[in-house]
Amino acid sequence: MTPMSSPGTPTLKRSIGTFLLTLYGLGTILGAGIYVLVGEVARAAGPAAPSAFLMASVLAGVTAFSYAELASRLPRSAGEAAYVAAGFRMPSFASAVGWAVIATGIVSAATMARGFVGYLQVFLGLPAAVVIVAFVGISGCLAAWGIKLSLLVAGAVTVLEAAGLVLVCVVARDSLQTFPQLWPRLLPGVDLTSWLGVTSGAFIAFYAFIGFEDMVNVAEEVREPRKTMPRAIIAALVVSTALYMLVSTVAVLALPLESLTESAAPLAAIVESRGFPPWIMGLIGMLAVFNGALVQLIMASRVLYGLGSQGLASPILARVHPKTRTPLISTALVTVLILTFALGFSLERLARLTSLVALIIFVMVNASLWRLKTDERERAAFSVPKVIPVLGVILCAGMIFYQSVEWLYGILG
To answer: pTM score, two decimals?
Structure first.
């Protein structure tokens, strides 16, 4: 596959360093996860929600290391499509993976648009449809304006997101005093039902770690991507895992389980329970969710651009505006699709759908890395042991199988 750009054609601008790229990944991970889904994970896993987040972190972490090596080998937009094309040498297969990645970004951003409604209702009781239309429209306009501006906004909000999570832990720090007595409740029991609940919660929580793979799709806008991409991917995963474990532990200790699972803005409910005004976390939560959706929208539009530039989709999708240096047509198409999904599906259903599609993609990406490592003649700038992609395939395929069985059981039972 070769790029379809010609001399004189506007191209994407390399303006992203390691720190900004790490914030970009964290923006999606944090915004998608703890602010929106901690209540949903607790509904499935009960008090063992922190164990569900840890299980999801391990699952995501193995694949994140595979992505880190592949991003070092092939720093391209539409990264997953490029990886599968290199590993399997099947352009049509690579194109299908690229479209699946786009679907993940679209459904993920739609999930965040639904989650935004819950936090806004801390302030205003506006109709959900009106909020969603405004939310998606503003995100699309900002993404079209320029990558540097978009990532600066995303980076600033990411710092605020992390500060908000620290704030939750500080105001509810009294709950941690009960940890020495209650920590066994945070682990799955010896019975099968408990483990099934934690596994189901991990499947939802897995969505909360989606974001590291988005980073590879801005590779053509990153400086020294073969070194920068692996560093930023690993840093984003480590920081997000530490924050998730701490905040989910505080959440299940600070609130009764029923209150946590029923709240549309769970972190705001924790802050309010400690005598602080809920609007503080409501505001941070809104910004966090907006940030996550913006990053997903950028990612999906860049994958569309990458498919067009690699000859796997219409070349019109690879057109870059000479002034904004962004793919406006791809951005507009992604924005419309996000709006459609956000208006048509519930929060939990969108999160589960995102996780399922992402797991399928991760199976293919891990398998591609295994094939590349089997045939390689020289090591990549960043390299992981061959067992990593094999383990990634096994773990991701296992989660797909489990979720499929759970889904069938729900229908037949």
So the answer is: 0.74
